[in-house]
Amino acid sequence: MQKNTTKSKTNKFEIMTTFISKTMLTELSKAAKASPRLRKNLNFHHDNEAQCHRLLNALALGTYVQPHCHLAPEKEESLVVLAGQIGLVIFSDDGRVVQTVVLAPNTENLGVTIPTGVFHSMLALQEDSVFFEAKAGPYKPISALEKAAWAPEEGTVGCADYLSQLHTLFV
To answer: Where along the chain do its domains lie?
Structure first.
């Protein structure tokens, strides 16, 4: 996936500009469908050590995002849906569904900021669903304490059934 970038000179500083285009969203969605996890991200930050992570994340129908939270105080995350529909599920610490919302462009709810310590999951409700995400870096894999013990881990038996249960929240 190539980023559409242009260079310009302003006040003797070279600025690299990346445009987020519909073509970029379409290509990222195609890559998500071809990925074994049925999702794909495109990072705008230079590396995993960057202090601010900015990325596009495409979710294909059928991808499973294990409910999780981020415990580090600086790790709240914000997302804005650019294409498709994303179902957001907020859980209590013991796995009860506290809130659901459909996020989609050109609707009342097109994005969210999720505070640290809040268990959540996202699922694609339409093909070609893509969101822009921003959160503090550097990258740290989700720890065992941040994964919801009451939900199946990605790639294990039970994921498909659990994902189907989550989908019924949006019917």
So the answer is: 4-168
